[in-house]
Amino acid sequence: MNKKIQLVYLLPWSWYTKCSELCQRLSGIGHIYVCLFFNVLTYSYLNIWYESCYRYPNLFVYAMLKNYVILGFRNLVKDKFYSLINILGLTIGVTCGMLLFLYVTDELSYDRYHEKASRIYRVVSYIREPDKINRWVSTQPPLVKTLKQDYPFVENYVRFFPAGRVMFRQGERRFYEEDIYCADSTVFDVFTYKFLEGDPKKALDVPGSVVLTQKVAQRFFGQKSALGQVLQTGDATSYKVTGVIEDVPKNSHFTFNALLSLDQNQRNADGWGGFYINSYLLLSKNANIKNLEAGFPGLYDKYMSSIFKRMGIHITYQMQPLTSIHLHSKLDGESNGDIGYVYTFSAIAFFMLLIASINYMNLATAQSARRAKEVGLRKVMGSMKGALVTQFLTESVLITLVSLVSSLILVAALLPFFNTVSGKEIGYMQLLSPRFVLIGLSIVAFTGLVSGSYPAFYLSAFEPAQVLKGSFKARGGSFFRKALVVAQFSISLVMLICTWIVYQQLNYMRNKDMGYDRDQVLTIDYQDNQSQDKYNAFRKALLDNPSIERVASASAPVSNIGGRIIFTVESSTGMKEMAFKPSVIDHDYIKTMGMKVIAGRDFSTEFPADTTNGVLVNEATVKRMNWQEPIGKKIVLGSLPADGKNPPPTALVVGVVKDFHQQSLYNPIEPMIMMYRRANSVMHVKIKTSNTASTLAFIRQKWQEVYPDRLFEYRFLDQDFQSAYHADELRGQIFTVFSGLTILIACLGLFGLATFTTEQRVKEIGVRKVLGGSVSSVVLLLSKDFTRLVLLSFPIAIPVAYFSMDRWLQSFPYKTGIQPWVFITACVLTLLICWLTVIYQSLKAALANPVKSLRSE
User: Fold this and answer.
1) Type and span of the H or E element at 732
2) The dihedral formed by the CA atoms of 257, 112, 206 and 199, expressed in degrees to the nearest 10
3) What is the 8-class DSSP label of residue 662?
4) Where is each ABC3 transporter permease C-terminal domain found (predicted)?
5) d(CA 111, CA 330)
């Protein structure tokens, strides 16, 4: 009998309407008899459906699902305003969730395109000095070659020797190319790169070979074949093109534009004292990583102790899986992604969907009184609770499906903008990938079931007798709605505070005094030391222009002084061999860069002996050596030879320079020693702010006169500085946009809830106005409940935001503090947003004519 009675769902909707109207006119027990009479009249109709569905069960399922969908659409159309709010909130939430999913997926995909990625490891160095630990990406050249000889499960190895920025020439075409490396011929046996021309097995076997990426090949040769062509470098070295590969995918932790074959010296390099190459191993499938790492101390004892032990330096290594480098590696001077951001953006996507689901729950339970009679009537007709739950879940899934379709259109439209904001190169084909389709269906299932679960079980639990008698009062839903609103605004407030602090930190890094003047400073990179005569001629020509204030040279750009070498330095216990950052500068460098000498003097042409007998140190060196009086301290410009023969020259400290940042603020200021040379490989030119274009044209002209065989390329120092924080700025933009959208979704739900609450209290408001209530008192009445809920979110959100951001800031050597005013301002702003959201409906109700609302009473 139950199966037959359940089929009452399949009756025309007009039957339900007429029955509902009839039931509303009755009171007491009478309406039950009417419902039973209605059921008897329709029994024969039900019996026909039952017989058909009994014989054809698939038809029964189809009919039931079709009926659920039809009823769901009817309810959507019936409450257009609330449906629109739910769909809009879910559309924003699903769109953001999908975009963030694309971002997270791209971050997790780094280096996974290599066929042997699961077996490739990078070897990195851990160098422990008596007073510090250095973690370097680079290793010594013979390391991986030795590991290949000693461990059978090491199948192969690859070493990348950095060549930096190289000028290539082919006929009249000359271009500077960044990220050029010399590599072992085994590189294409270990890593997977698609060859467009050439044989990967032989491409780098012969010295003087080069493999180009497609972009570089087209730059020099257009659409013609590059294979067999010859390129020359600035020093007239010739390289034959033996291969062309597709451009290295952007989701790689390591990229290059060309690979050069190793020369004889690089192939046979066996020095264990220098760390300057990147090393990778290909292991067999059953390789024992722990066994390999356990042998690292033996390498130190056998090959390095004679070099480093007397300095108190100990060296070991770590194996990094290739696929974990991008998100998990945080070595000195390395710029990678961060698994923390992956977790953060995943959480944002989840919370945005959750807040959108909360909106649906709130509005659905708030409208419970409207649908109570519908539920009561269906139960009287024999509907089971499971069928009612299914109906309400169907409605929520329908809303989610409509939102999903809208979201897919928005994702396709916003993808170019999202790529710009995030710095990604996500293509439209990824929207058709099985993974993306699966995540879309998962979002529908998650959001539809989560948002519809509570309303479904809540509404289906109504007692039909109380509902149809008119004595029904919803219980429990009000408290749950309030809790959900508090949860919504707690999440929104946490995101608002976190966004604020993220931008504070980025702004702090952009504006912090770096210890030098980076404005209007050009950097010109020679790539090698210039003859002093040419340098002096170029420098003199530039200084003749009144728009050029100063010219100086150094061995490296001031914003990227890397590497360390061994110096023998005077200490309180004698001469000690220690590693310091070196820099070679001329006598104009300190003044040009706006640095300060706080003790002693600067380099000067009045002291020619400074080129061999004088050095400058920074404050960090003085602090490290614990010098009370640094001027006159001895520094041997190198490591003392073991046999004591031909020691390096000894210099004296002539001045102390105020600390300046040698790299970005992600790296602490390190002790450094500056030596004096008059012509170096990097030039800094300080120009005036007026007539910048004509000044640059003048510099280009003089360059071509002095260096006709070299391309003129420059960059502004402040651009180099900003590029160091570009990735974090992009993440900050993403965080800001989605934080704002999270607040918007919460406000949409609050707006809908305020609208419904105002409608429910319209007669109460009319009575208050008739009795003399003012507009302001009515507005305050309607706003205070929501204000309480937002205020309750403050003590929940503030501790969560504080501890989250305090932990995040610990990863920065130089960081801004967490100021109380940030929390106060964020709370006030959230409260204002709440009031602005509610005020429209409150004013509309307060200004309405009370006669209209009381006319029916």
Assistant:
1) helix 726-760
2) -100
3) S
4) 347-463, 737-848
5) 17
